[in-house]
Amino acid sequence: MKVLPPVMVSFSVTRRCNLRCKHCYSESVEEPHPNELSTEEAKRVISEIAEAGARLIIFDGGEPLMRPDIYELISHARDVGLRPLMGTNATLITPEVARKLKEAGLRALAISLDGADPKAHDEFRGVEGAWEQTMIGIENVKKAGIPFQIAPTLRRGRVDEWLKVAEKAKELGAMAVEVFDYVSTGRGGENPDLALTTEERRRFAEQYIARQRADDMVYRCIAIPHLWVEIERTVPEEEVMMKFVRTCCGAGIRYACVLYDGTVYPCMVLQVKAGDVREQSFVDIWYNSPVFATLRDRDKLEGKCGSCEWRYICGGARCKAYIATGNMMAEDPTCWLEGDALKRSP
Amino acid sequence: MELHRLSEIIPELSQRALQQGWKVLTREGATLEVKVEGERYVVDIREHTGPIHWPSLRDWIRQFDGQRKLILLTMGFFPKKSILELLKDPQRAGRVSIVGMGLRDYFDTEFKPRKLGPASPLLDAVEEVLAGRGISLQAITCDYCSERPLAGCDVCGALLCKSHFIPCPLCNARLCHPDVNDCYFKHQC
Lengths: 346, 189
Prior knowledge:
heterodimer; A: alpha/beta; ten-stranded mixed β-sheet; 13 helices; 36% helix; B: alpha/beta; 11 strands
């Protein structure tokens, strides 16, 4: 099978963070990891990501702005032909920071926002006043002219909150809303009761489809790949279908994640080591890692995912299969599709 | 082929509409307006051969208000660039069907009949009337499969169906899916 270049690569440049989010997949803390990649190592990795053929690089963490050399890394990414993006909580974005990000060549930001008001956000993010700081950061980003999207995380008991956040995102002038499902990995593993129930996830799917139908805002969804099957099944109008962005699992197929210590994962929430950029080049890992090769072979999927006719498109959330069973090719336990829904009409 | 002028099909199409219980609102020369299942459709015909370039197609579409669905037929053809422009606006593409007999100029006698547009009962009727005259419309398809194209690639100009396009996450440009072409990686924005 021909291996295509990655569509995008996340580079979690530090585990340091000023917030204590309940769902943090990288278990971020105040102190940097003792084995964090140096500036020169990080720049080499960025060059290798470009060499692998990627066009987008997402700097995240932790909070990437906690890394003092972040501007140097962004401008290096730009210089080697990548389009640099950043995932941030935006609390550290002063007018000066926003200006430096723009000058370094940052193309867009994904800003975490888990509530349309301070209470819902701060409780989840673990620091009082975080929401207010994020709002100030967003204003600074807007003034600097950097496009941004808003990224809420779904959680149990508050599945409808994302709709309020989506409204807020429109009000703020965001270019997109990227909704993350709660995945019980990293610190998120300490709070598995925050993960949506299957019924809530199904309800979210209905809300998401209705919302995108009615709205010209770009919506994306991470970690609910079977949402795409629901979209294909329930949206008959092809012109309307074109508004939807695919939600399929691209871990190791279109996407990979490099950690602050050089570990390479297929995805930030599928924490199966595919390689280490201190031992191999990223190019070598992307094209030759057995972990990636396994993920790219959808005929290796097991259980319900293995017999599902949508497997070459959806693939199931490999992260959730791995968390539930320790086998990344097992069936996705959060898929609500059954019976005829698993068949693909010609 | 038993067709000298496309407008020859209008009386037959009108008759068929009445048989189907559809309401014929107007019938004037090369134009027919029909109400089908609550939707108003206009069938409009241009007899001349040769290409309908985008400015002409755009003006043709603008002749009618945006509420009505259009089926635009020509003895000529719609060049790919016209189709790509048509597809740039999904709302417009969702209400306009185009049918070309494919004659390149006045002396061309070889029909190459093609169609593009959303499925509709009236388009089916047009197709049946033309089939009765020995003209079988071939669908214009995605450059990578036999599905209906809904977008054009901003890099290479390929016609793309819903399965073979990917939007740029930064600028929403529509591009060939990485599975079929490397336009995503070539795209600059």
